[in-house]
TrEMBL record, chain A:
Transmembrane regions: none
Cellular component aspect of the GO annotation: mitochondrion; ribonucleoprotein complex; ribosome
Record InterPro entries: Mitoribosomal_protein_bL33, Ribosomal_bL33, Ribosomal_bL33_sf, Ribosomal_zn-bd
Record's subcellular location: Mitochondrion
Keywords for this protein: Mitochondrion, Ribonucleoprotein, Ribosomal protein
Similarity comment text for this entry: Belongs to the bacterial ribosomal protein bL33 family.
Gene Ontology MF, one: structural constituent of ribosome
Keyword Mitochondrion: yes
Protein name according to UniProt: Large ribosomal subunit protein bL33m
GO biological process, one term: translation
From TrEMBL, chain B:
InterPro entries to which the protein is assigned, alphabetical: Ribosomal_mL59, Ribosomal_mL59_dom
Any one of the GO CC terms: mitochondrial large ribosomal subunit
Keyword Repeat among record annotations: no
The name this protein goes by in its record: 60S ribosomal protein L25
Biased composition (Basic and acidic residues): 61-71
Domain of life of the native organism: Eukaryota
Keywords, ordered alphabetically: Ribonucleoprotein, Ribosomal protein
Sequence segments annotated as region (Disordered): 36-93
All residue ranges annotated as the Large ribosomal subunit protein mL59 domain in the record: 16-190
Taxonomic source organism: Aspergillus eucalypticola (strain CBS 122712 / IBT 29274)
GO molecular function ontology, one term from the record: structural constituent of ribosome
Amino acid sequence: MTLPLRRIPTKLDCTGTKSRTITVRLISMAMTGFYRTMIRPRTHRPLSMLKYDPVVKKKVLFLEATKGGRNK
Amino acid sequence: MATTQTSSLVSKLPIRLRNFFARYPPQIYSAAVAPRPEAPETGAPVNVNVEDLPSPYTPNRDAKGFKRPDPKAFSPSKAILHSDSKHPNPFLPRKNFRTGKWFGPRIGLRRQAELVKLAIKYNVEALLPPGRKSTEFKETRRAERGLAIKGTGIGQKVKGHKWERTMEARLEDRRKAMMEMPEMIRLWKQRGHGRGWKSWPKR
């Protein structure tokens, strides 16, 4: 006789909801590997802004990066 | 005239060097009178038998390209260490060919070093017998060993760190990206500061 496998409860099970905001990474388009981490509402459109990149010492475009490379 | 000059020079030497030169006269023992070493001709073809080479699957150092120096191979630094069987070099060990026994050098390495330092100070190093402590030997050996550093041979590359190896490509990428940056920013502003942006980077 085998015992039925019991699923380990995760954090999501306890809270039941996703957080309203998410942390995102804005990558420098100067290809320096420099990035900034920001928080935005989950439902907001992806972030993009002009920011200073200390590697090239200039203001460059920073775009939000996601795991799949796909944004809304 | 020359004799008096020489004798006056000799009298200026410290007693230790004078005693040494009295016991081992430079005209017989010195490195200056030793025959110059000649490299053997390397024109002979080297026959390499494939079966003699170590298998790449054998976990030994030879298989990984490490070559142990052949003790019988010609080496310029070793060739400097000349010893005459009639007048054995006091700085070198000696083999008795009758009994096959080895004798250490008459003057050990510590005393050799002291003598060489003293001789350099009085500018008479060339009058000492050739030995392991001489400037010439050390320079020759350094030249020899210098070539033995991995990656500096013909057709070899020094591996270096990863950041060194990829530096050129990364800088090129950065340069290209910076060249296109004004155009990119113009487009980004035109498309409502990211509202109509399609190509988002991957994380």
